[in-house]
Amino acid sequence: MYDVLLVSINYPDIYHAWAQWNRNANLAISKLPDVRVEIVVPRPLSLPIKYLPYNEMCRIPAMRQSEEGLVHYPRFPYLVPKKLLYGVTGDLYGYCVSRYVYGHISKKDLVHCHHIYPDAYGMLGLCEKWRVPLVGDIHGDSFFTDYAGDTGLGRRIRRTVHACSKIVCVSHHIRELALRAGVDDAKLAFVPLGIDTGRFRPRDREQIRREMGIKEHHIVLYVGQLLRKKGLYDLLEAISLLTDRNDCKFVIIGSGPEEEGLRRRARRLGIEGQVQFEGQRLGEALSKWYSLANVFVLPSWTEGRPTVIYEAMASGCAVVATDVSGIPEQVKDGYTGLLVRPKDPVMLAEKLALLLDSGEKMTEMGQNGRKRILEEDWTWEGYARKIDRVYTSVL
Q1: Contact 250, 276 (CB under 8 A)
Q2: Which regions of the chain carry the CATH code 3.40.50.2000?
Q3: Would you write out the chain's pLDDT as a tens digit for each of its 395 residues?
């Protein structure tokens, strides 16, 4: 039996639904028979004044017992603007969070951080004092832009990677980028994230359609943050090329800074009647949308190995996604879905039309997707078993 401290700044709480995979990963790890976990979720320091950034964080308790274990919420100053001060923010994180851990948490056998920066960087001093291994995760391509930078942030990140006993890469693509960046092969471990195949599963589409009052025969679904790099403006352009499809509704689930811009673009293109912005959806409401959808679309310009694709495949959706980063490792072109070039609305429209015109192909690809999830063991139980092997390799 050994004790692990799990650390992640991007962790869902009562005010923010971000990065649900963090909690799911920790919950899976906590169920390992030989592991005891305690969780640290650093939160920005703020005051309960309405117009201050992060003011809602003041209402989050210092700690609470959750299904995955005891969760601590230490505070640290999060400086803005982020572009200028993110390096210093990591130093403040390290000082404040480590000080909290020293005073409230007993020594562990290992520290696992779900992000290299600021999480693993902030835990360097703690791991040195405890003399325990540090494990850090890399989740996306953009990490390597910062890693290579001749900046204070870049130097901090490189120092952290050097200090980690193991680096967990969620895709083969990220592992290859790490090797090209000069990271020691022996330090790298490929561990894909997982999915709850009980929660995300095929259901009776017609029954859900009646329950939700959906009239359209086909639903094309996007789930994720509303960010420019997610390629959503490309998606709207593609939809504008499919205006003759009155039996199809395009549903966008998520929130983010581009929401109003996307709504304006939809109106300008004359497709506001075909596009439905659903906002943030979680739990059973989200699972139902996946089960209702015929096609899941992800037009991102860059990704890691997105969990939304696992969710869609487990739910029996055919997938149309861009051929970037770790996505081709998930979506087998022509078998579980179709791959398209990023920033190519015409090709995206063509591939969507191809599936929408062939109900048999759409259904078959959806079935193949769930089959592949199970065959590859892309489940949270599979993730936990692989992480357990990473832990034992450094202890």
Answers
A1: yes
A2: 2-194+379-394, 205-375
A3: 999 999 999 999 888 777 899 999 999 999 999 999 999 999 999 888 887 777 888 889 999 999 999 999 999 999 888 888 999 999 999 999 999 999 999 999 999 999 999 999 999 999 999 999 999 999 998 899 888 888 999 999 999 999 999 999 999 999 999 999 999 999 999 999 999 999 999 999 989 989 988 888 899 999 999 999 999 999 999 999 998 888 899 999 999 999 999 999 999 999 999 999 999 999 999 999 999 999 999 999 999 999 999 999 999 999 999 999 999 999 999 999 999 999 999 999 999 999 999 989 999 999 999 999 999 999 999 999 999 999 999 99
2-194+379-394 CATH pick, 3.65.10.20, 3.20.20.140, 3.40.50.2000, 2.30.30.100: 3.40.50.2000
**β-strand partners of 36:** 3
pTM for this prediction: 0.93
Distance of CA 99 to the CA centre of its chain: 29
Q: Does CATH place domain 205-375 in 3.40.50.2000?
A: yes
Q: What is the identity of the amino acid at 230?
A: K
Is 120:134 a contact under the CB 8 Å cutoff? Answer: yes
